[in-house]
Design goal:
2 strands, MetI-like fold, mainly alpha, 12 helices, two-stranded antiparallel ribbon, 2 domains, about 280 residues
Length: about 280
């Protein structure tokens, strides 16, 4: 009984805080999406489903999120493999370097990328100097700029789950495969990659869910065709002042993210059950 009371004393204040800071605003957003002057209505959702702008933005949100997640995986997996081969001391130092992007505000980094990727930016100037001709590659205010900004932010979220899976692989499997004469490519595709798939799946799903709510990066580095759902919410709240539609978009985005998070959690539970049974 005493332990239960102590638990309530610890958890109670946090629960009350989350209720007023998180759940009350969410409930108000849901209420706003269904309520109009005449009473409850689904008109906001009906208008959205018939809006070409919303459907196009929803598609671009999925496209950008999945592409950014896959690009981050392609860049982060080799980093995780390199970290897994290091000694614990060196690995700790390299892991700090992986975390460096978190030390800078995403807004500051986005402005930094505008300087690096602009037509007269540092990257184009270096290319011009290397090829002895003027180079002005369009790397800003398009999909490429959005991918650069998002992968820079998402790579650490790929590295650590994949690294955890790689470190959990039994080293005797590598020694046995080498004794049997297996070459490094065969070892990777038959041992490393299959056994690291749980970390890969968890990292990919989590980064995809996370990137669906990005606002600053597509707003500063992307063009009109690269707008995401959060940018559309900003448009309806600041430009058209249609809070009913904006709330409906927020509810739809929340539902999509919640379903994706539930799928990721279910996948992790199935994987953990398989490991226990094994």
């Amino acid at each position: 009984m005493k332990s239960r009371v102590d638990g309530l004393l610890y958890v109670g204040p946090v629960t009350v805080f989350l209720f007023f800071v998180l759940f009350v605003p969410l409930a108000y957003v849901v209420y706003t999406s269904f309520w109009i002057a005449g009473g409850p209505s689904l008109s906001a959702y009906q208008r959205l489903l018939g809006s070409e702008l919303f459907l196009r933005t929803l598609w671009s949100t999925f496209e950008i999120s999945i592409t950014a997640s896959v690009a981050s995986l392609l860049l982060g997996y080799p980093i995780a493999m390199h970290l897994a081969k290091q000694t614990p001391r060196k690995r700790a130092i390299y892991m700090v370097l992986v975390l460096v992007p978190f030390w800078t505000s995403i807004l500051v980094k986005s402005y930094a990328f505008t300087i690096l990727l602009g037509r007269d930016g540092l990257v184009n100037k270096l290319l011009s100097a290397a090829f002895h001709t003027q180079v002005q590659l369009p790397m800003l205010f398009n999909r490429f700029g959005v991918m650069v900004g998002m992968t820079n932010y998402l790579i650490p979220f790929i590295v650590f789950p994949v690294l955890a899976s790689l470190l959990s692989i039994d080293k005797s499997l590598y020694r046995a495969s080498e004794i049997m004469g297996a070459k490094p490519p065969r070892i990777f595709f038959r041992i490393t990659l299959p056994l690291s798939l749980p970390g890969v799946a968890a990292a990919t799903l989590s980064t995809t869910v996370m990137s669906m709510g990005f606002f600053v990066i597509p707003a500063l580095l992307g063009g009109r065709k690269d707008a995401m759902m959060s940018n559309l919410v900003d448009f309806y709240t600041r430009e058209t002042m249609d809070w009913n539609i904006a709330s409906a978009i927020g509810v739809i985005l929340l539902a999509i993210v919640t379903l994706a998070a539930m799928a990721a959690d279910q996948f992790q539970r199935r994987d953990s059950k398989k490991r226990v049974m094994a």
